[in-house]
């Protein structure tokens, strides 16, 4: 399954409210950076602690993930295709193939919210995140 992941420059809360109104829906999950446990590898500064780390919104029957990026987001680069898999071997294989001639953003590693998470910008400039549940 591929899930669109939209990143915002500190406006995720506003975007969620907007999409909830437009599509008559409610976010099923909203986590702020401050919700991350101390043992997580996430690094953020005090000014970012109330930003949205992850949210999930059902839009017309499809899941759309949204967050506030701690990096600059320009129009056009705020979307990541997220692949959700249940098999670690498959996740590792997909990650390895996507990183060929690309840029690894985050190595595939265990996270508090998943068995594995990794992110890569492929050789075509497409951002991918791999989650193993």
Task: Describe it.
The chain is α+β, with helices and mostly antiparallel strands and 133 residues long. It is 18% helix and 44% strand. The protein is built from 2 helices and 8 strands. The protein has helices at 12-23, 88-99; strands at residues 2-8, 27-32, 52-59, 62-68, 79-85, 103-111, 114-121, 127-132. The chain has an 8-stranded mixed beta sheet with strand order 2-3-4-1-5-8-7-6, covered by helices on one side. Strand 3 and strand 4 (62-68) form a beta hairpin. The relative contact order is 0.20. The mean pLDDT is 89.
List the helices and strands and how they pair.
Layout lengths: L1 E7 L3 H12 L3 E6 L19 E8 L2 E7 L10 E7 L2 H12 L3 E9 L2 E8 L5 E6 L1
Parallel strand pairs: 1-4, 5-8
Antiparallel strand pairs: 1-5, 2-3, 3-4, 6-7, 7-8
Mean pLDDT: 89
Q: Strand order within the widest sheet?
A: 2-3-4-1-5-8-7-6
Number of helices: 2
Low-confidence residue ranges: none
Question: Could you describe the largest sheet, including whether it forms a barrel?
Answer: 8 strands, mixed
The helix-and-strand class reads alpha+beta
Order of helices and strands: EHEEEEHEEE
Helix content: 10-25%
Terminal Cα span:
12 Å
Overall 3D shape: globular
User: Mind telling me the C-alpha Rg?
Assistant: 15 Å
List how many beta strands DSSP finds: 8
Our estimate of the beta-strand percent is 35-45%
